[in-house]
Amino acid sequence: DGGITQSPKYLFRKEGQNVTLSCEQNLNHDAMYWYRQDPGQGLRLIYYSQIVNDFQKGDIAEGYSVSREKKESFPLTVTSAQKNPTAFYLCASEGRDSSQSNQPQHFGDGTRLSIL
Amino acid sequence: AQSVTQLGSHVSVSEGALVLLRCNYSSSVPPYLFWYVQYPNQGLQLLLKYTSAATLVKGINGFEAEFKKSETSFHLTKPSAHMSDAAEYFCAVRLPFGNEKLTFGTGTRLTIIP
Fold first, then answer.
1. Comparing C-alpha atoms, which of B7, B24, B21, B8 is closest to residue B93?
2. Is A39 touching B (CB cutoff 8 A)?
3. Which residue has the higher pLDDT, B64 or B101?
4. What is the average pLDDT across B85-106?
């Protein structure tokens, strides 16, 4: 089945440690997104990528980094500079013509990151 | 910039009763609108979308929503609630141009009372 796979499901980070969250899709989608979800705040955009080897900052990019070396993969690194990383992280992808924005985003099942 | 407001962070309805989840948007032009559902510890699943065709949109699981430009609203309804509808629901808005970002509301948690 086509879909988006996020791993791991649960992740723990020690102080001063960088951690990387994996996101893989086999939907042949060009665009991929990372969101952070906190209770009562909805989803906030961290980074997004519309094509391979290109990505843009979202609304809350500080303390995060990404890469897009392959169309299928869009890993997110939570760096030690992110002082409040505890959250639920969601990856999404979207197949879209660059002239249209009416396509829905497809989501993975998320990674829950906690501080040890 | 576009935005969306979901009135009521928590809504409770009895099983079999009408479900009404409210969403109002702010946008410089008529936008595209989406409703997503999220079950615990899962990602978001698309319920329905409005993309400037029919103003009454039918989605999965018996849900529907009506785009009302005069009220800048896109409320989600279901005639008869089922226990399996208990989840969190998100309204999202996007401008109808290329490369625009999706902006989410803060969500409404729906509880079904047996």
1. B24
2. no
3. B64
4. 90
